[in-house]
Every structure is written in C-alpha cells, then in structure tokens.
Task: structure prediction
Amino acid sequence: MNWIILIIAGLFEVAFAFCLGKAKLATGNEMYMWYGGFLVCLLASMTLLIKATESLPLGTAYAVWTGIGAVGTVLLGILVFKEPASFWKIFFIVTLISSIIGLKVVSHT
Result:
C-alpha cells in the first residue's frame, strides 16, 4: 500500500510542477490560482511522501518520488508545454524509469 501512496505522491509532484508552468504563462488572478494549486499539490505530495516513508526505506522512497517527478515533469514539458524531445532526452528518461523500477525490485518492503 505504501508503494501506491508513494506513486501518488510522485504524481502530485508532477502536478505542482505543472501548476508552476501554467502560472508562468498566466497573469492576474489566474496566475494566483495556479500558485494556489501549486501549494495544494506541494502539501499533498509532501504529506504522502512522509506517510510512505513510515514503512519504506527513506533513500529508496525519496529516489522513487523524485524520479516520478522528474520523468513526469519532462514528459509534461514535451507533451503540454511543447518542449523539444530529442533522442538523448528520451534515452535518459527511459534510463531513469529503468532505475526507478530497479529500486523497487531490489527494495525488500
């Protein structure tokens, strides 16, 4: 169950990065709404990370959490914010995903 909580925490990390990206493009009240979304997602992500580390090893949980955030944010940048997707960017994302899966496999919890 704590692995699921950790994955959700990572998705909230992607969501707070998305909110930052949208806030950067917005003005006025819309910008403040996106910053509010950022704060809500940040709080949810951190709370769930804390919950997950109650039974998962801290180093593994943190690496998986940041990995989910990194992969998700890069994919969001490519798909939503139209950032360029080079061969090497995709190669290293796949490498990062493989590393996250590897950490899960070798973790004994």
Q: What stands out?
A: Helices lie at 2-25, 28-52, 58-79, 87-106. The CA atoms of residues 23 and 35 lie 6 Å apart. Residues 28-52 form the longest helix (25 residues). The chain has a mean pLDDT of 95.
